[in-house]
Amino acid sequence: MPSSVAAPTKGPADERTGDERTEGAAPASPAVPARSLLSGLAGWASVAWFLVPALVLFLVFVLAPIVVAVHNSFYKWGGVGPMVDFVGLENYVRLFDDQVFIGDMGRGLYLIVLSITVQLPFALFTAVLLNQKLRGRAVYRMLFFAPYILSEVVTAVLFTMIFLPGDGMADHLAGALGLEGLQGKWLADPSTVMPTLFVVMTWKYFGFHMMLFLAGLQGIPREVLDAASIDGANAWQRFRYVTLPLLGPTIRISVFLSVIGAIQLFDLVWVMTAGGPNHSSETMAISMFQFGFKRYQVGYASAISVVLFMISLVFSLFYQRYVLRRDLSGAVTTGGGR
Amino acid sequence: MASTHPSRRSFLALSGLTALSVSLTAACGGGGSEGGASADGKVSFEWWNIATTEPGKSLFPQIATAFMAAHPNIKIQTTSLENEAFKSKLTATTSSGKLPDVFQTWGGGVLQQQVDAGLVEDITDVLDWSTQLTPVSLEAYQIEGRTYGVPYDIGMVGFWYNKKLFAKAGVSTPPATWAEFLDTVGKLKAAGVTPIALAGKEKWPGHYYWAYLAMRVAGLPALQEAAASKDFTGPGFVQAGAHLKELVDLQPFQPSFLGAGYATPGGQAASMGNGKAAMELMGQWAPSVQKDAGADLGADLGFFPFPTVEGGVGKIDEVFGGGGGFALRKGAPKEALEFLKFFVLENESKLLASNGYLPVVKGAESQLTDANKKVVAGSLAKATGFQLFLDQAYPPAVGQEVNDSVADLIAGKKTPEQVTQSITEAAKSA
Predict the structure, then answer these.
(1) How far apart are CA B184 and CA B85, in angstroms?
(2) Residue B299 exposed, middle or buried by CB count within 10 Å (0-12, 13-18, 19+)
(3) CATH 3.40.190.10 segments of chain B
(4) Are residues A276 and B407, on separate chains, in Cβ contact within 8 Å?
(5) pTM as predicted
(6) Which of A278, A311, A316, A333 to mutate to test the interface with B (most CBs of B within 10 A)?
(7) Biggest distance spanned by C-alpha atoms of chain A
(8) Does B266 lie at the interface with A, CB-CB under 8 angstroms?
(9) B13 in contact with chain A, both atoms CB, cutoff 8 A
(10) Nearest-by-CA chain A residue for B9
């Protein structure tokens, strides 16, 4: 996964070393004659032929499960016997009447807002810091990136130990800092569990965003910054008016990945709190798992999964259409590369 | 390029959740092979068990091999699956209408669903050796007077307590009534001892309290009636919750118990094993888990049954627990039942000697050597009534709602009335 994530973000960053303003239009013009060559029937046939394996995989592993999930969500089905109890939209009605699920969406939003306002600026700050000439900066980069490579479950078990009431490192640390009020709470108290969870998320993922930002920063030509210096811009002004705008495409991708990640958060929470105490850290994915695999209410769980999917999909499409528009040419939502 | 990646990620998440339905349909192809006799008189049948850990891991195949050696015409095809994997595979197989010839069952709600679907063999009339088994162990597999399974293990829940800490608080005899119990909790607190260890994160240990209180206040028949009528709002159930609230109001649990697991480091079992709490309400497996997660309390560990409640109809020798058994697919070869007879009756001493199981055969408890197991087996032998774990006795959705609602009650988020309403709601919509 890291390689496929790094690839698209390197793309825009690299292209920007060329002329920023014409980036969108330049690749499109040579593509037009190429496309007309393919319009012949033979061309289409061979295209279709080459697409078959990918299409089959896509149908079986992507489209079919979605269709099955949507179908199941219209039934009341306990996983045993034939699916006969068609209930229409009842599962969805129940869903939006379920206080826990409404809370799930609120908690998702909470994590999104904190990710964008705290985690990403922090990642950007470290990236800028480590983009300077600094003794041992490769070591720092590796250290900060290392948590991202760790598996989610390992991370969660590790932090369960750190936040262990009484004996955990966090309790000792809080005691040493005179924060006795926090001792024994962390993951065990409904009022502290979400901030604690966010700290773990930040620890786990900020290094990844830092790497994205570093890649973006390295794509910013020295000359532009030098020119700004000559014009009398101080360090802050150089960052604010040169670095930040040129980093725009990378930041937009980072925000996108953070939001999708927060909406679908599962493994960290499942291992650390299982959504507790008393649903106070439950996410949509956790609710879905609870109903699907613990209560065997497959129809209802499917309805949750469909809503989760729709939220992710709608967000993705809108984000691509209105925010990433300038960064991506030829994306589905730009209406043919406009 | 960047556009496809994130959406693929969301698709992946979705395929994760729809994997359930896919695996359900995919598994339709598998399932039980055609057992039964072939022309040359050879019989083969399938046997699904959950013996993936010791002692069953080596003991179960030994038993199967011994049986096949004694019956050269019979072949047993064994499939051993981990607990959760077994449940999902069996669910998938059930939805296709086919079960393996002999399969692990815990009885209760799931077995009832399988029976209702017409998939399980009624063995009431052919089980001529049922009188050799303890009635308590058979109960989970009996539905409306008919028997659908054979037990090989049975256990119960009760209070495990630290005798040293009880002595420190000046409590010489374990409490026998709820009032005495609350009094004991007060004394322990006054002596600076955490009275009870509870795994608040995992919810199922908390449901034991509510279930036992419901048994003691409303009585066993009321629990069965409620399951049938799907109405848990009776005064006995509300009162059970109120009694639990009395206990919770004393703040008897270890600090931060809401985040504590059961067998995890710093969890319920570790608190008990390390002597940081005076008691826990847990099943017969508690001593071994305490040993693994914390330390072995040895002779300091004692056991007492759940106290009776003043004015309640339940008796102290009515037990709450569960075990393990095997059921037969409808139409399974009759040799499969022969195998179960061999497994249970002739291998009981081996099962008990392995120290992993409790006796289901009458009188076998005398073979036990482990002191803790002896106490539990003794209580089971004397038991006059039995209630299966509520999350096994009831359909999964109801059982989970009991766990969830009782956890909310313990955290002060639900009143006793709201608990009974939530469970009723889940039962009606399940």
Answers:
(1) 42
(2) exposed
(3) 33-156+321-388, 158-320+390-429
(4) yes
(5) 0.79
(6) A278
(7) 76
(8) yes
(9) yes
(10) A260
Query: Do residues B17 and A301 lie in contact, with contact meaning Cβ atoms separated by under 8 Å?
Result: yes
The predicted pLDDT at position B304 comes to 93
Using CA coordinates, name the residue in chain A closest to B24. A79
Smallest CA-to-CA distance from B218 within B252, B185, B243, B192 is with B243
Q: Sheet containing B301-304: which strands, arranged edge to edge?
A: B194-196, B277-282, B158-162, B301-304
**Contact assignment for A297 to B264 by CB distance below 8 Å:** no
* Token representation of residue B399: 């059982």
Which of residues 179 through 238 in chain B touch A, CB cutoff 8 A?
200-203
pLDDT tens figures, B206-236? 999 999 999 999 999 999 899 889 999 999 9
- DSSP string for residues in B130-176: GGGB-HHHHGGGEETTEE-EEEEEEEE-EEEEEHHHHHHTT--S---
Residue B390 contacts A where some CB pair is shorter than 8 Å? no
Contact criterion met (CB < 8 Å) for A312 and B13: yes
A247-302 pLDDT tens trace = 999 999 999 999 999 999 999 999 999 888 889 999 999 999 989 888 888 899 99
Q: Are the C-beta atoms of B376 and B156 separated by less than 8 Å?
A: yes
Among all chains, which residue has been given the structure tokens 């869903």? Answer: A95
Helix (H) or strand (E) holding B65, with range, is helix B56-70
Does the CA dihedral A84-A85-A90-A96 come out positive or negative? negative
| DSSP states along A194-215 | HHHHHHHHHHHHHHHHHHHHHH
Q: Would the CB atoms of B15 and A65 count as touching at under 8 Å?
A: yes
Name which CATH class applies to B33-156+321-388: alpha beta
Query: Which residues does chain A have with pLDDT short of 50?
Result: 1-32, 334-338
Q: What angle do CA B367, B373, B379 make, to 5 degrees?
A: 95
Q: Where are the domains of chain A?
A: 99-334
Q: Which residues in chain A are closer than 8 Å to B255, comparing Cβ atoms?
A: 165-166, 184
Element housing B278 (H / E): strand B277-282
- Phi first, then psi: what are they for B52, rounded to 5°? -105, -5
User: Is the bond leading into B55 cis (omega within 30 degrees of zero)?
Assistant: yes
| φ and ψ at residue A16, rounded to 5 degrees | -65, -15
- Cα distance between residue B56 and residue B50, in whole Å: 8
Rounded-to-integer distance, Cα B169 and Cα B190, Å: 8
B10: amino acid identity, one letter? S
At the fourth CATH level, the homologous superfamily of domain B158-320+390-429 is Periplasmic binding protein-like II (3.40.190.10)
Architecture of the structural domain at A99-334: Orthogonal Bundle (1.10)
What is the C-alpha to C-alpha distance for residues A314 and A223, in angstroms, rounded to an integer? 40
